[in-house]
Specification:
heterodimer; A: alpha/beta; Rossmann fold; 2 domains; 6-stranded parallel β-sheet; 4-stranded parallel β-sheet; 12 strands; elongated; B: mainly alpha; ABC transporter involved in vitamin B12 uptake, BtuC; two-stranded antiparallel ribbon; 16 helices; 77% helix
Chain lengths: 326, 343
């Protein structure tokens, strides 16, 4: 095909469109009276994400707001594209569950410079206040890890520990590692960290990592600390496969109180996990955005942390009854 | 007789999008004009082209290679590794050094691929699959799996500046595409690619330095991929070993959509550019049609397959019409048979 034929064939429909008035920059959306929120999620394919997406839909509807929710597919370039699209759509506020603590900064800065309120939820970036991001809402990962470390120290102050981490680069993974090791360095000087390996938030990977740990350290492992329940479920599978019994096994500490983790707490395979409700998180993010839009947050940047409390065998029944993950 | 030689033949790839791509793009745009006019605000149109630029650079770079009947599935890792190298060098030795190092490293990666294919005679699918994992592994090792950042304004300026109101990535993409298009159409670079893709043994017999040219095409492909990687790193002010997975498949799909058969020997640059824009357009449409998140991928794929099916059906009909016209012409003008046999 020659180039002028290409141009010619493209020109005809384009002319029609332009004559319809295609270059009209007034978007029909901005003419609607209701406020529309733009949400960019790092991924849609995790138990956390699907519960949060559902709650975003339900809660924004309840508040009488519109919602555009997009999947970045864990791809930094797609996230940038999504955020640009949301800006072009003139949404009232952009809520971002960032893919990468460094790589997402440029897009957030661009949106903030346009004067659109930007709120990070669930995961944040390095020094968000410098970029003009108005708020972070979600769990305080560092504190979650500190509580997990407290549980570990209380259980056995001379224990040998293995750690399974989430995907490097996620603020959640970094903080849940730092909080734990900082706490051990402070109050758990008798404890020993045998090894730290990543399972990228994946259950299968965690199962493999845990099997490797068992092969390498065997009965030396006193405590398993895994950064979320999904991975912990994999680690528990590895323990079962290696022939450990429910009452004779390493102490298992987890974070998340997720749909896969709670039954394991009830059945006695996980000793402790930390509460983090995706429903509460989605609602908090929308409420924080509304607050910023109404001018009720005087600070240029503010952290809005969720309450996070430990879940053990004593209170697991109540938590399961809340149906956090439906 | 020109009509008969230009007639679309029955194979899938050559039928695809010969001249119909702009019609399809036009039809989609027309649909959007009725659905949501805010789609046509300049900002959105620029967004579409701007985000197509990265894949576009990868695609135009690989077009020459695919015409010569090879392909490179390591472009995604190349993009990642050159971005990482650019960021790390730039943080130590300044922005310009970073750009140069990034692009040079990509050309070297292309050279390695070329040597493996042309000199060691390893099938390009296997060799570039291997180097894909190697390049990504190097990127993992260099970064410790953590994102690396470079906040030098000069480094971020490469992608953030504007030319005549157009974002820089678009300008880079269009310049590279134009240069390669001209090279493909008017120079030995292009002619040899078609010849090698068409009949490699014949080219050897004619004394063409087949291996040299193929290595050259791999270097062009690697260079373009690393240029894309450097632009991406500059736009984000950071690079990470996990950025550009699965890019190669989309790029190869776009090139095939654009009319380059997997068996090489044919295709054109405008076709590939059009296909890249089509993919970007479909991407943006899923957003503007407000397709809910979970169905976006499904919608994207269905629309893409719908476009291809439409194209094949349309092409078949056009083909039949041409045959009919031929028959009528033959009846009216006796004596034409001779000219056809010779053509």
């Amino acid at each position: 095909m020659t180039f002028h034929r290409f141009v010619f064939r493209l020109a005809l429909p384009l002319a029609v469109i332009l004559s319809i008035g295609g270059c009209d920059s007034r978007s029909p959306l901005t003419e609607k009276p209701k406020m529309t929120f733009g949400v960019s999620m790092s991924t849609f394919t995790s138990p956390y994400a699907s519960a949060a997406v559902k709650e975003f839909k339900r809660f924004t509807q309840e508040q009488g707001c519109g919602l555009i929710i997009l999947d970045a597919q864990n791809d930094i370039q797609r996230e940038a594209f999504n955020i640009d699209n949301l800006m072009a759509k003139r949404v009232g506020a952009i809520l971002v569950n960032t893919v990468d603590s460094k790589g997402s900064r440029a897009s957030l800065r661009k949106a903030a410079r346009r004067g659109i309120p930007v709120i990070c939820f669930n995961s944040s970036v390095d020094r968000p206040e410098e970029l003009g991001v108005r708020a972070y809402s979600g769990p305080q990962y560092y504190e979650q890890a500190v509580s997990a470390a407290r549980v570990a120290i209380q259980h056995n102050p001379k224990a040998k520990v293995v750690m399974i981490t989430g995907e490097p680069g996620y603020s959640a993974a970094n903080e849940r590692e730092k909080g734990f090791t900082d706490m051990l360095a402070k109050d758990g000087l008798g404890m020993k960290m045998l090894d730290i390996q990543t399972a990228n938030w994946m259950r299968e990977n965690a199962q493999r990592v845990m099997s490797d740990f068992i092969t390498k350290f065997g009965r030396d492992i006193d405590i398993v600390y895994s950064q979320d329940d999904n991975m912990t479920a994999g680690a528990v599978n590895a323990l079962k496969a290696a022939g450990y019994q429910r009452d004779h096994r390493p102490f298992v500490i987890s974070i998340g109180a997720m749909a896969d983790g709670l039954p394991l707490v009830r059945d006695g395979w996980i000793d402790s996990t930390i509460m983090q409700s995706p429903k509460e998180e989605a609602q908090l993010a929308v409420n924080v955005a509304l607050k910023v839009l109404r001018g009720e947050q005087p600070e240029t940047f503010k952290n809005h942390f969720m309450t996070t409390s430990p879940v053990g065998r004593d209170n697991v029944a109540e938590i399961i009854a809340l149906h956090l993950w439906d | 007789m020109t009509r008969r030689t230009n007639m679309p033949d029955a194979s899938f790839q050559t039928l695809l999008f010969r001249g119909r791509l702009p019609l399809i793009i036009g039809a989609l745009l027309l649909f959007m004009a009725f659905y949501d006019r805010s789609f046509f605000i300049p900002e959105n149109l620029i967004n579409i082209v701007s985000y197509s630029s990265i894949n576009g650079l990868l695609a135009v770079g690989m077009t020459l290679l695919m015409i010569s009947r090879e392909f490179d599935i390591s472009v995604g890792s190349n993009l990642v590794l050159s971005g990482v190298i650019a960021v790390q060098v730039a943080s130590r030795f300044g922005a310009t050094a970073g750009f140069v190092a990034g692009i040079a490293s990509g050309a070297v990666m292309g050279l390695i691929n070329g040597l493996l294919v042309a000199k060691a005679n390893i099938n390009s699918f296997i060799s570039t699959l291997g180097t894909m994992v190697i390049y990504q592994g190097v990127a993992f090792a260099l970064t410790d799996m953590k994102p690396v950042a470079c906040n030098l304004p000069a480094f971020q300026g490469l992608a953030e500046r504007e030319f005549l109101g157009l974002p820089a990535p678009i300008v880079y993409f269009l310049s590279v595409a134009t240069v390669l298009w001209l090279a493909l159409k008017f120079t030995r670079v292009g002619k040899n690619a078609y010849a090698i893709g068409g009949n490699i043994q014949g080219c050897r017999n004619l004394g063409i330095n087949v291996d040299g040219w193929r290595i050259g095409y791999f270097i062009i492909c690697g260079g373009c991929a690393s240029f894309a990687g450097v632009i991406l790193a500059s736009r984000l002010g950071a690079a990470s070993a996990t950025f550009g997975e699965n890019v190669a498949l989309v790029v190869i799909a776009a090139i095939v959509l654009g009319g380059v058969p997997l068996s090489g020997g044919a295709g054109s640059m405008p076709g590939v550019i059009g296909a890249i824009l089509l993919l970007g357009l479909i991407d943006s449409m899923t957003f503007y049609l407000n397709v809910f998140g979970y169905y976006q991928k499904l919608f994207w794929a269905l629309l893409l397959i719908g476009v291809v099916v439409f194209d094949v059906v349309y092409a078949r009909r056009e083909n039949r019409r041409l045959e009919l016209a031929e028959l009528l012409l033959l009846k009216r003008e006796p004596g034409r048979e001779n000219t056809e046999v010779t053509s």
